[in-house]
Amino acid sequence: MSTDDEGVRRDVTTSSARADGAPDRPGNAATTLPAGTGAGAGAIADVARSETALRRFLFGLPGVDQVGAESRAAALATRSIKAGAKLWAIETAISMVDLTTLEGADTPGKVTALCAKARRPDPADPTVPGVAAVCVYPDLVATAKRALHGSPVAVASVATAFPSGRAGLAVKLADVRDAVAAGADEVDMVIDRGAFLSGRYGFVLDEVRAVKSACGRAHLKVILETGELATYDNVRRASWIAMLGGADFVKTSTGKVSPAATLPVALVMLEAVRDFAASGGPRVGVKVAGGIRTTKDAIRYLVLVNETVGDDWLDPARFRFGASSLLNDLLMQRSTQRSGAYAGADDFSLE
Question: Is 185 in the active site?
Answer without folding.
Answer: no
